[in-house]
Amino acid sequence: MHSDLRIHHERLAKFVQAIWSHAGSAPREAELVAEHLVQANLAGHDSHGVGMIPRYIASLAEGQLKLNTHVSVIRDAGAVLTLDGGRGFGQVVACEAMAQGLQRAKQFGLAAVGLHNAHHIGRIGHWAEQCGKEGFISFHFVNVMGDPMVAPFGGSDRRFGTNPFCAIFPRKDEKPLLLDFATSAIAYGKTRVAYNKGLTVPPGALIDHQGHPTMQPHVMHEPPFGSLLPFGDHKGYALAALCEILGGALSGGRTTHDETLETDNSAIINGMTTIILNPEAFDAPHMQAEAEAFISWVKKSPPSGNMPIQLPGEWEEANRVDRIANGITVDPMTWRQICHAARLAGMPEEELNAFNALVG
Ligand SMILES: NC(=O)c1ccc[n+]([C@@H]2O[C@H](COP(=O)([O-])OP(=O)(O)OC[C@H]3O[C@@H](n4cnc5c(N)ncnc54)[C@H](O)[C@@H]3O)[C@@H](O)[C@H]2O)c1
Asked: Which has the closest alpha carbon to 178: 139, 141, 121?
């Protein structure tokens, strides 16, 4: 197989669900993981889509990822919850954490949820969307514990993770505003996608092991390892530092430092502090109208080039519309890695061949 595959999202989700069922996940877990990964692809974030499966299978084989694990409440302080994810699937424990936080935000007008020790929680926008769908605003500060990849502004080696920040604002009759990005210049997964496709990454995103700028993604995938740079110079670095401390320390978990390094295994451990607000609890009768007035004012700016003026979240929505209609594209290298992972999960060769015959 040498050309890209184009797979209908529902078919791909069924395949991913089958992989996790073979690996030992309960039906609901297999469904949540499949839905999350495929939704990340639909949103255009291939870095956090089905291409993560081989890494999760490796983490499972190393005894790091714990299947069929649910959040435990470490402290219930009413509007503030501290939850331990027990290294369970982030796709399950973050979903449970958001559900508990939403229930408290409905009760109190706002809630804060500290979730620590979760296995990779994937695309953070997914958790904001869980809040947005119920009409709530949310903010998410996330750290990637013990897996440094990003150099501090002014530094030359990796000291912390790609620490994403995310926020959502639901609109009355429109898609929500969704801000969701890694605080590194590009997400680590985007270096994997470029590496697998034999492409370079944009300038300003990477340095090599000696601190020299490079556009070659192999510095993140082959020793000697280089580092990602923070986005926006000192500003992105400052936000990353706050994500580390709010996501890692305030959530009841740990930050990245010499005692917590986990560079010898495949686990990705996230901590996330989420603030959920009920907009109805504010005395802001013009909130939606003011938001819409601002949006149309901004959109009237004369374009500086060929690019349209977009709102946060519009890029993902456009991808979703396109990919639901035309399928999700998977490059051959990534597909080979996923098929190998499916075999390791215990999928029989006939089942894998039957799927490949459908999509190949
Ligand atoms: N779980 C983890 O440990 C982890 C770590 C890092 C990143 N991530 C996830 O990786 C994904 C990718 O992150 P990224 O940094 O590559 O994202 P990105 O650079 O693609 O930026 C995405 C954000 O920019 C907005 N955007 C894009 N084009 C725009 C435009 N023209 N105008 C206005 N807004 C625009 C999008 O709507 C979105 O909010 C995210 O979903 C993030 O949550 C997860």
From this structure: 139
Residues with CB under 6 A from ligand 1: 45, 47-48, 120-125, 142, 144, 162, 164, 166, 178-182, 186-187, 190, 270, 310, 312-313, 315-316
Q: Is residue 103 part of a domain?
A: yes
**pLDDT tens digits, one per residue of 201-222:** 999 999 999 999 999 999 999 9
User: For residue 244, what is the domain's CATH number?
Assistant: 3.30.1370.60
- Buried residues in 128-145 as b, exposed as e (16+ CB within 10 A): bbbbbebebbbbbbbbbb
Phi, psi of 352 (to 5 degrees): -65, -45
Whole-number pLDDT of residue 73: 98
Q: Of all atoms in ligand 1, which is nearest to the CA of residue 189?
A: 10
Helices (H), 43-153: 53-61, 90-108, 125-132
- Reported as a single tens digit per residue, the pLDDT across 73-92 is 999 999 999 999 999 999 99
Tokens 């000192």 belong to 234
Residue 9 contacts residue 324 (beta carbons within 8 Å): yes
**Domain with 281 in it:** 5-184+230-285+333-357
Q: 180 C-alpha vs ligand 1 centroid, how far in Å? A: 4
pTM of the model: 0.96
Decide the pairing of beta strands 80-84 and 110-119.
parallel
Radius of gyration for the chain, computed over Cα atoms and rounded to the nearest angstrom: 20
Instruction: Identify the burial level of 63 via C-beta atoms within 10 angstroms of its C-beta, where 0-12 means exposed, 13-18 middle and 19 or more buried.
Output: exposed
Partnered with residue 167 across adjacent β-strands are: 139, 179
